Amino acid sequence: MRAGASEPNLRITLPPVLREFSWITAAITICSVLSCTAEFRIFHRYYPQAWPLYPPNIRFSDFTIYQQKFHLFHQAAFFTTDWPFTYPAPMALLYQAFYRAFGAHALGAFIIFLILAFAVPAVLFARALVERGIAPHTATAFAAMLLFLSWPALLIIDRANVEVFVWISTAAGAWAYARGKEWTAAALFGIAAALKLFPIVLLGLFFTRRKYPKFILGIAVYGVTTVVALAILGPTIPIACKGIAKGLTFFRDIY
Fold first, then answer.
1. pLDDT exceeding 90 applies to what percent of the chain?
2. Which residues lie closer than 8 Å to 119 by C-beta, 6 or more apart?
3. What separation in angstroms does the CA of 37 have from each of 24, 45, 51, 233, 249?
């Protein structure tokens, strides 16, 4: 065998950090099951202690709750009819895209999209582990654990929640940053922040390293995306801005 070549059948175990993650995830899951079982069986408490997801009677309602409202898209009545819209303006454009493209089948199309949004990265992650020497069965088991014991992902699917787009843009930005594509990462973090403000903290990766042009790009993308979305949502930017602010305040107060 030539120098530097590796054994074709040589397989390595999961790195220590992934093994520790597996044990901790399993332990937290078991504790959650025991705790919620006690809540159900002993104390007869069903909400909000319902585990692992919300009660079945409101499943997918983060998506369906707005479906009737969107016939008023680009009208002032959009903000005063039915349940307040509780997301930043760019999210409204994503809702509208699904409602217009798929009509009565919008929910089904969105559920498929949600599942793929988490399943595809899990498959890619398992493949990456195999390429780095992890046995296929170990890589598959670990990726499956990530997929099926990730409560945020399960909750997003259960609620049919559009914050999946925050996950996609943030994850894509993290991938770009790890690959040294920092301009792309800054733009993606800016888009994620426009969809839901909290990812804006990721732009601190550039600010703290004095990469100010990339930081400014992220802020600019956030601002432009927000203003364009407000203009499209309409009927005017001031009306849309006021309506979105009202919905976000409602969400903050109710929780």
1. 72
2. 147
3. 20, 10, 9, 45, 35
Structure tokens at 201: 């903290």
Rounded to whole angstroms, the Cα distance separating 205 from 176 reads 13
- Do 49 and 36 touch, CB atoms closer than 8 A? yes
Place of tokens 């959650």: 32
- Residue 108: in which H helix or E strand, if any? helix 106-131
Q: Which residues in 186-206 are b (16+ Cβ under 10 Å) and which e?
A: bbbbbbbbbbbeebbebbebb
Distance CA 141, CA 22 (A): 10
SS3 of 12, please? strand
Q: In degrees rounded to 5, what are phi and psi of residue 80?
A: -120, 0
Residue 45: band (very low, low, confident or very high) from pLDDT cuts 50, 70, 90:
confident
Q: Please name every residue paired with 134 in a beta bridge, in sequence order, or none if there are none.
A: 12
Contact between 110 and 98 under an 8 Å Cβ cutoff? The reply is yes
Angle between helices 182-195 and 164-178 (to 10 degrees): 160
